[in-house]
Amino acid sequence: MAPDEWIEACRADEIEREDVVRFDYSDRSFAIYRTDRNDYYATDGYCTHGKFHLSEGLVMGNIIECPKHNGRFDVTTGQAKRAPVCVDLRTYPVKIEAGKVFIKP
């Protein structure tokens, strides 16, 4: 994968508002979010605490709550917001073109 390559993750309409989907590419897994304000974001897919996939979590505004231990992250920045998580998520650029979501891992 080239450093400036955008990867098609899914159709924009596959993600409901305040929801998240899983996207696996090569040997990596991502979480793609759509906020209540209709903005799209992408982070690493696994919680930094329990290694549980965030696509099973609950999106509330800009917050994703991990389904395993209820830790929370801000999806816009990756910042850990509630214990037991204390390590931030890595975030990735997102763009929407022709109704499709692209990320730059």
From TrEMBL:
Its cofactor is [2Fe-2S] cluster. One of its GO terms (molecular function) is oxidoreductase activity, acting on paired donors, with incorporation or reduction of molecular oxygen. Residues 7-103 form the Rieske domain. InterPro entries: MocE_2FeS, Rieske_2Fe-2S, Rieske_2Fe-2S_sf. Keywords: 2Fe-2S, Iron, Iron-sulfur, Metal-binding. The keyword Kinase does not apply. Belongs to the bacterial ring-hydroxylating dioxygenase ferredoxin component family. NCBIfam families: MocE_fam_FeS. This is Rieske 2Fe-2S domain-containing protein. It comes from Paenibacillus silvestris.
